[in-house]
Amino acid sequence: MWVRSEYAGELAVLMTWLAALIPWNVSYAAGTSGSAVLFVRFPLVQVRYVFGVPIARGVSLADPLSAIAFQQGQPIELVYQVWAVGAGVYAAALLVSIVYYRREAWAESWPVDPVRLLGALLLVTGLVFAAATYYLATRGFSSLPIPIGVGFLLLFGGLLLVIERTDVA
Questions:
Q1: pTM beyond 0.70, yes or no
Q2: Is the dihedral angle over the CA atoms 89, 40, 50, 142 positive or is it negative?
Q3: Is the CB of residue 30 less than 8 Å from the CB of residue 143?
Q4: Residue spans per domain, the chain
């Protein structure tokens, strides 16, 4: 086995927290006026950098809900709505991981294995972010989105789902 059963919980928590630091999508868009924007989308926040503008004014942060409000009525509003769904699923995984980390014995007594629960939540998050990336690529956004974190989320979720747990009833 690639991971010992007694370390599966720690691995699940670590993978869930690590997923917060990996952008699920990176996009670079160049406008016709010569302006360019870099979008780095993490599960719970988007960093937008406008090139040619001083850093203090060129960098902005947005959560999924404020990003939806900003894109309201635009062709890519659906992308941000799907991102918000994925962010909600990821937030649930993050909450489960925090509870699991703080109260491991209690979490291990749940009717569902918390490692498998985190695996399923990360897998669903990856699938939702994959859908958002697809919509971003097909809704007239002027760049090719690079789904960096989507692959990691799918990999993390899949790995956690196939771990053999001999120490859980």
A1: yes
A2: negative
A3: yes
A4: 5-23+68-162
